[in-house]
Amino acid sequence: MQKTIRTALAALAFTAAGTVSAFALPANMQSLGATNPPVGHYDYCKRNPSDCQPNTDGQQAYHLDEANWKTILRINYNVNTTIKPMTDQELYGVEEYWAIPTTAGDCEDYALLKRKLLHDAGVPYSDLLMTVVLQPNGEGHAVLTVRTDRGDFVLDNMRTKVLLWSETEYRFLKRQATDNSARWVKLDDGRATSTSVGTLR
Fold first, then answer.
1. 3-state secondary structure of 68
2. Which CATH number fits domain 2-188: 3.40.50, 3.90.220, 3.10.620, 1.50.10?
3. Beta carbons within 10 angstroms of residue 50's beta carbon
4. How is the chain split into domains, by residue range?
5. For residue 18, what pLDDT is reported?
6. Secretion signal: which residues (predicted)?
7. Contact of 10 with 161, CB cutoff 8 Å
């Protein structure tokens, strides 16, 4: 784990030195306006209204220093290694059901738990954004985006390493709005041409 943190910190320093501009992509994703939330998140909000409220904790991107970065890495690693991957069909008998897991879950459940734990650790909800992406194989997938003053970082159950959004292989489709956890916005990926969307609609 310590080696992972040291490696990731070195990667962060490299990013801060200007690698993002080399790809002509912004460090933070750009929004294209309001869109519909995924069905699973809409249902989650009906069951958990207190977790889907306007964000009153400010709109400044989260300050990323060494201590905060270590917290992000630790929580991403711990959730990825303690939650067992299982589909909603296996757990709940339905195709799509968003929930904070205790022992098992699928991609959006991992992201919801990371969101909760990072908020408990002091990260504002306005900087913890559930995000829907498209994988290279065309399947939908959910990750957690942490919006920081050094860029938007992706916490993914499919990898331990935390990457800038522009360093991933995903096409970014939409995510929670920074000012209201119940609302979603479309994203300007700037790299993709496909318009197909997987099951996370």
1. helix
2. 3.10.620
3. 7
4. 2-188
5. 38
6. 1-22
7. no
What is the spatial distance between Cα 141 and Cα 195, in angstroms, rounded to a whole number?
A: 15
What crossing angle do the helices spanning 66-82 and 107-120 adopt, rounded to 10°? 140
Q: Name the E strands within the chain.
A: 30-35, 84-85, 104-105, 128-134, 140-148, 151-155, 163-164, 171-177, 180-188
Give me the average pLDDT of each 10-residue run along the chain (201 residues). 46 41 70 96 97 86 96 98 97 96 97 98 96 96 97 96 96 97 94 50 48
How confident is the model at residue 192, as a pLDDT? 52
DSSP class of 169: S
Q: What is the largest CA-CA distance in the chain?
A: 48
> How far, CA to CA in Å, does 112 sit from each of 29, 33, 69, 85, 195?
20, 23, 19, 14, 26
Residue 169 token pair: 């292989």
Enter the tokens of residue 75.
């929580």
Per-residue confidence (pLDDT) for residue 200, from 0 to 100: 60
Question: What angle is formed at CA 162 by the lines to CA 186 and CA 129, rounded to 5 degrees?
Answer: 30
Phi, psi of 159 (to 5 degrees): -150, 150
